[in-house]
């Protein structure tokens, strides 16, 4: 009779040491090649003729206009999409109605349609040759080849982010807490702000950050609807491409660095919030 | 409060959750809705609380038609099956929620809210947990906090959906007595849902046996054990 010694037991979920090392190594290698290296290359390219020269390129009026436009478009489309996203997720998860499944598919549409195609659709819909577009141009509010078109295209592309983050969370939480608040005499708005929003705030934050990153970075749809007019409808991504095509590589890469930094700011913000509220996050996901 | 359920029926699309049922609940009674899964107990309780509206029929509170009253207007203290505590609020804030939600002129001062919450914590015998979050409580503690939160609004009646459903046998017994004590102290008309016949028989003044959306029998626990009205009741209480 042999007794198995303790050493022969290994927790079932622990991989052998070499396997773990290879996996971690692989992930780090991939991250380096695919994420860090390009980022560093962009920064290096921007700075190859000195910081002063790089910053000089940002003072160009067209560059300034592009930065302003990108920030403006994000500032308009992100809050609106956050509101729409909450409304859509609310309608889908808190009520039963016919057409719900169709609505979910519709929300995903911007993910599945190529941005260029989406841009073309807006040109057909609002362009000067269409009925609506002709009327808008006559009224002095052109949409295509103008800032409103950039906003509309960006909103379309970024529509799913908030709703997509919220739907699973709100489905998982169900309506019980809202119903409890109702029985305690709270009004609809009070319930929304004291029960619903606190319960979804993390998902909402992620959705808004993703939405913002994409809103600032969108290229395809905006390229089509904006007409890429320098100093008027050119956003940062469009400007980067134009500068690059004109062999103004320092200017192109400086603008690219700035765009990447804006994205990094949002990521840092997210990590900081996660770190600051780690205990709350843990408490709200348990239960 | 005296409750009268008058020919209440409820359908969800093609499913009939309740055939017309009628029931009179005397003021101050402790009533059990007893029946197997899917018999319509929760549906009837939610109709009383105003969370669901009946397809037909009326609900009368103290003789007044309450069928059209909103949830908020009914002022029913409701304890949900899985408690539905607000997970991002402390126990204190959970219990205070209904008081803070009142219109400004009837809202108690902060000091008064604090006093009442602590009194309720005493009542549920958990005086020291005000600062904890629901995730940091045991199942039995959550259940009692849910009860305190429902009582905080000074409800006109107390409705509980399987209040002890998710708890182990020993805690169930303890809390059963706790509910009886609180009922006797407050004198509130209380309706609770259960599928445990022992619980219904031991705790309730009046037991309503339900099956497949119908009321099979209404009576005192002793009457139901002694004289089951139908074969279903006989079979159900003998298990
Ligand atoms: N929101 C709803 N939509 C559709 N059908 C429903 C809904 N709520 C309840 N039902 C149906 O109504 C019937 C009665 O349900 P109810 O929840 O009242 O039963 P119950 O007696 O509480 O059962 P349990 O002991 O399992 O909780 C069931 O057939 C159920 O499927
Ligand atoms: Mg039920």
Summarize the structure in words:
The complex is a heterodimer of chains A (287) and B (239). Chain A has helices at 17-46, 51-58, 61-94, 100-112, 115-126, 131-138, 147-173, 176-183, 188-217, 220-226, 236-245, 249-276, 278-285. With 287 residues, chain A is mainly alpha-helical. By secondary structure, chain B is of the alpha/beta class. Chain B has a domain at 86-154. In chain B, 38% of the residues lie in helices and 26% in strands. Chain B contains 9 helices and 10 strands. Chain B has a 6-stranded mixed beta sheet, with helices on both faces. Chain B has a 4-stranded antiparallel beta sheet with strand order 2-1-4-5, with helices on one face. The interface between A and B is medium-sized, with 21 and 28 residues. Residues 12, 15, 17, 35, 37-43, 195 of chain B line the site of adenosine-5'-triphosphate. Chain A: This is Sulfate transport system permease protein. Chain A: Its main location: membrane. Chain A: Part of the ABC transporter complex CysAWTP (TC 3.A.1.6.1) involved in sulfate/thiosulfate import. Probably responsible for the translocation of the substrate across the membrane. Chain A: GO terms for molecular function: ABC-type sulfate transporter activity.
Short overview:
The complex is a heterodimer of chains A (287) and B (239). By secondary structure, chain A is mainly α. Chain A has helices at residues 17-46, 51-58, 61-94, 100-112, 115-126, 131-138, 147-173, 176-183, 188-217, 220-226, 236-245, 249-276, 278-285.
Computed structural class of chain A: mainly alpha
Main sheet record of chain B: 6 strands, mixed
Count of runs of 4 or more consecutive helical residues of chain A: 13
Write the H/E string of chain B, N to C: EEEHEEHEHHHEHEHEEHH
Tally the beta strands of chain B: 10
- Uncertain runs of chain A: none
Assign an overall shape of chain B.
Answer: globular
Estimated radius of gyration of chain B: 18 Å
Count of DSSP strands of chain A = 0
Q: How much helical structure, as a percent, in the residues of chain A?
A: over 70%
The pLDDT mean of chain B sits at 92
What is the ordering of alpha helices and beta strands of chain A? HHHHHHHHHHHHH
Largest sheet of chain A: none
Strand content of chain B: 25-35%
- Side by side, the strands of the main sheet of chain B go 6-7-8-3-9-10
Going by CATH, the homologous superfamily of the largest domain in chain A would be MetI-like
The rounded distance between the terminal residues' Cα atoms of chain B is: 33 Å
Uncertain stretches of 5 or more adjacent residues of chain B: none
Helical element count of chain B? 9
List of distinct ligands in this structure: adenosine-5'-triphosphate, magnesium ion
């Amino acid at each position: 009779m042999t007794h198995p010694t303790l050493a022969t037991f290994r927790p079932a979920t622990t991989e052998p040491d070499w396997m773990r090392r290879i996996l971690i190594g692989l992930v780090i290698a991939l991250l380096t090649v695919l994420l860090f290296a390009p980022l560093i290359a962009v920064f290096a390219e921007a700075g190859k003729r000195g910081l002063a020269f790089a910053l000089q390129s940002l003072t160009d009026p067209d560059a300034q206009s592009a930065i302003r436009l990108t920030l403006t478009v994000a500032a308009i489309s992100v809050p609106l999409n956050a509101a729409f996203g909450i409304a859509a997720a609310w309608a889908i998860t808190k009520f039963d109605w016919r057409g719900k499944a169709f609505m979910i598919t519709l929300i995903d549409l911007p993910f599945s349609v190529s941005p260029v195609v989406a841009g073309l659709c807006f040109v057909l819909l609002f362009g000067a040759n269409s009925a609506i577009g002709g009327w808008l141009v006559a009224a002095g509010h052109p949409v295509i080849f103008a800032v409103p078109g950039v906003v509309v295209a960006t909103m379309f592309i970024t529509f799913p982010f908030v709703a997509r983050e919220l739907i699973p969370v709100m489905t998982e939480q169900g309506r019980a807490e809202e119903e409890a608040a109702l029985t305690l005499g709270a009004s609809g708005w009070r319930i929304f702000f004291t029960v619903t929003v606190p319960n979804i705030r993390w998902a909402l934050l992620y959705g808004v950050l993703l939405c913002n990153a994409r809103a600032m970075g969108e290229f395809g749809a905006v390229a089509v609807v904006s007409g890429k007019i320098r100093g008027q409808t050119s956003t940062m991504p469009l400007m980067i491409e134009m500068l690059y095509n004109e062999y103004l590589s320092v200017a192109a890469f400086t603008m690219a660095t700035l765009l990447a930094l804006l994205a990094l700011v949002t990521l840092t913000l997210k990590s900081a919030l996660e770190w600051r509220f780690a205990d709350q996050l843990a408490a709200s996901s348990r239960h | 409060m005296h409750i009268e359920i008058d020919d209440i029926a409820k359908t969800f699309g093609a499913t009939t959750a309740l055939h017309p049922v009628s029931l009179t609940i005397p003021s101050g009674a402790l009533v059990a809705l007893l029946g197997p899964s899917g018999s319509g107990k929760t549906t009837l309780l939610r109709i009383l609380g105003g969370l669901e509206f009946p397809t037909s029929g009326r609900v009368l509170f103290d003789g007044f038609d309450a069928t059209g009253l909103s949830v908020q207007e009914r002022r029913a203290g409701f304890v949900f099956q899985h408690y539905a505590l607000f997970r991002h609020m402390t126990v204190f804030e959970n219990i205070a929620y209904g008081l803070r939600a009142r219109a400004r002129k009837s809202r108690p001062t902060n000091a008064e809210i604090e006093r009442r919450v602590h009194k309720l914590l005493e009542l549920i015998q958990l005086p020291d947990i005000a600062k904890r979050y629901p995730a940091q409580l045991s199942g039995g503690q959550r259940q009692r906090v849910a009860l305190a939160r429902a009582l905080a609004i000074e409800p006109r009646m107390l409705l509980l959906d399987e209040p002890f459903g998710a708890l182990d046998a020993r805690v169930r017994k303890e809390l059963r007595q706790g509910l009886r004590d609180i009922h006797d102290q407050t004198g509130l008309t209380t309706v609770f849902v259960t599928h445990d016949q022992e619980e219904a028989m031991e705790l309730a003044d009046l037991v309503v046996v339900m099956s497949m959306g119908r009321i099979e029998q209404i009576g005192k626990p002793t009457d139901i054990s002694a004289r089951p009205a139908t074969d279903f009741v006989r079979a159900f209480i003998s298990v």
